[in-house]
Amino acid sequence: MKVRVDATLCQGHNRCYALAPDLFQLDEAGFASAVGDGTVPPGREDAAELAADNCPELAVLIDE
Ligand code: F3S
Fold first, then answer.
1. Rounded alpha-carbon distances, angstroms, from residue 14 to 44, 45, 60
2. What pLDDT, in 10s, does the model give residues 8-43?
3. Ligand 1 pocket, residues with Cβ under 6 angstroms
4. Ligand 1 centroid to 64 CA: how many Å?
């Protein structure tokens, strides 16, 4: 599983980072991107799904 953030949709709500700071990082303006290449470590799949479900802009995308 991989996560990514659609930069055209992200508005900086930061819920993804609050829920999974190991999977997301924020730039100086508060916009998110996936850490590294977005690979979700074993056992963190639920956190990735939670982050996707909680982004108000639906900017967190999951690739199975
Ligand atoms: Fe952006 Fe959504 Fe996270 S708007 S900062 S991807 S919660």
1. 18, 18, 11
2. 999 999 999 999 999 999 999 999 999 999 999 999
3. 5, 10-16, 32, 55, 57, 59-60
4. 20
